[in-house]
Amino acid sequence: MELELAGSTFFYNWEVSLMVWLQAHMGTAGVWAASIFSLLGEELVIVGILCFFYYCYDKDFGKYVARNVAVGCIINPMLKNLVLRRRPYMDHDEIKCLRPLDIDASIFDISKQGYSFPSGHSTNGVAVYSSFVRYRKTRFFEVLAIVAPLLIGCSRVCLGMHYPTDVLVGWLLGVFTIFAVPYLQQKTPNLAVFYGILIVLALPGFLYCKTTDYYSGVGLLVGMALADLFETKYVNFENTRSPLFCVLRMAGGLVIFVGLNTLLKLPFSKDFLESSTIAAFSVRSLRYAIIIFIDLGLYPMLFKYEKKFK
To answer: Cα(47)–Cα(30) distance, rounded to whole angstroms?
Structure first.
């Protein structure tokens, strides 16, 4: 069944005026800079960061950040699909869409471009970079926790993808996530029960969410839960400080992520995958769950063979 998408329009006049002014004065260099800063809150960059912490630096640190990110990737679109705010450029011709969420889809296809309120990039920015300082307080992490989300959020306004109020609430949602998730885990020491609670709380979105970002988030959470439980019980790999093995581990993880994402699409037609149907959305969640489980749970089993080369 194809899902019909609706949208609502509400804004403050100062938001539109500010966005029009920014886009009129940012120039080519400004668009380039905003696009780079926006990347800091996007999937591949976040995956790369998580791979570094999980595979190389400190896997418990990586798991901590990944849990926060997974929950943020769910509660953000759950709220988006309740508020249904259309993106600024959809209702204001004077605002340009300079970096669509899905470059292969129409910029007016809400199922692919997502709703506007709150900003997912802003939530991701806090969930990732501010998690660092919540786990380990250093001067570098303290600066990064403020600067990175600020640059990400401002870039989304400049690129025409979000109203300033989208970004403000996105930041607040990220702050809620990095405090609520660790608190729940502290109160629920049984890891399986902890993940079970998170998954149950996420499931209501299947009843009303009509955009792909929610279903990607659910797959990420389920895959993370299975990988964490599996790795803890059966793998228990060691981190590495070797630059060579760190690069190899990360490269392998990214290849698996991209490769499986392509491979698991092959049994389905492009029209089906791009359709706004419950079946297509469910396949998307399943695909992400499989990828994350293999990448974080099964793939680290290979790390024990590194000792042969040392």
So the answer is: 26
